[in-house]
């Protein structure tokens, strides 16, 4: 008879370290409250609640997929990727690409109707969008841009100071005192 096939599950997939591995989970969880309650509450663009639901769900899935990606502590040798690791990397890249495209699409839907009518009692409800729904979508989108901008500024400052300090160290080594 055949011996049972033993599969190796990487240690990274066995543990749940929500601080290091699931940075997306808290932010994505905010996108996934029951936005289906608002599905009919934005006639000016009915895709906005759908955008929030899909972004939240895929953000959570991305966080789970991230937990299966191996992390090697500094100084440790990098092991060759397993089939599971390759599959997780592929799914991670695919979902990331989808979320990037979905984010661009959501930008169009959100910013194209700025500022909707928050008063549902008007005679023309075609321009109505629930205030909570719209402002959540609007400000979370703005927050992404704020974080990207701050990251860019910090990255540029880091690169500048690294270059300046690197040039100073090289000059100090080349010119004896």
Provide an overview of this structure:
Keywords: Membrane, Transmembrane, Transmembrane helix. InterPro entries: TMEM272 (IPR040350). There is one protein chain. This protein has one domain. Helix content is 60%, strand content 0%. The chain contains five helices and no strands. The N and C termini lie far apart (79 Å).
Summarize the structure.
This protein has 177 residues and is an all-alpha fold. It is built from five helices and no strands.
List keywords for this structure.
single chain; mainly alpha; 5 helices; 0% strand
Q: Total number of β-strand segments?
A: 0
Oligomer: single chain
Helix tally equals 5
Shape: flat
- The residue ranges in which pLDDT falls below 50 over 5 or more consecutive positions are 1-24
What is the share of helical residues?
A: 55-70%
| DSSP strand content | under 5%
**Largest sheet descriptor:** none
InterPro entries: TMEM272 (IPR040350)
Transmembrane segments: 48-69, 90-114, 143-167
Keywords: Membrane, Transmembrane, Transmembrane helix
Chain-wise SSE layout:
Layout: H1 11-14, H2 24-31, H3 47-67, H4 83-111, H5 131-174
């Amino acid at each position: 008879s055949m011996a049972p096939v033993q599969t190796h599950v990487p240690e990274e997939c066995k543990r749940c370290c929500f601080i290091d591995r699931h940075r997306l989970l808290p932010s994505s969880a905010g996108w996934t409250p029951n936005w289906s309650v608002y599905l009919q509450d934005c006639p000016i663009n009915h895709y906005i609640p759908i955008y929030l639901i899909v972004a939240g769900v895929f953000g959570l899935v991305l966080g789970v997929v991230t937990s299966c990606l191996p992390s090697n502590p500094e100084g440790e040798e990098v092991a060759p990727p397993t089939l599971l690791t390759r599959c997780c990397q592929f799914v991670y890249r695919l979902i990331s690409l989808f979320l990037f495209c979905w984010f661009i699409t959501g930008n169009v839907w959100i910013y194209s109707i700025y500022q909707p009518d928050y008063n549902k009692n008007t005679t023309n409800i075609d321009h109505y969008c629930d205030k909570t729904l719209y402002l959540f979508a609007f400000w979370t989108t703005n927050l992404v841009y704020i974080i990207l901008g701050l990251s860019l500024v910090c990255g540029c400052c880091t690169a500048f100071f690294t270059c300046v300090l690197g040039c100073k160290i090289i000059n100090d080594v080349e010119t004896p005192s």
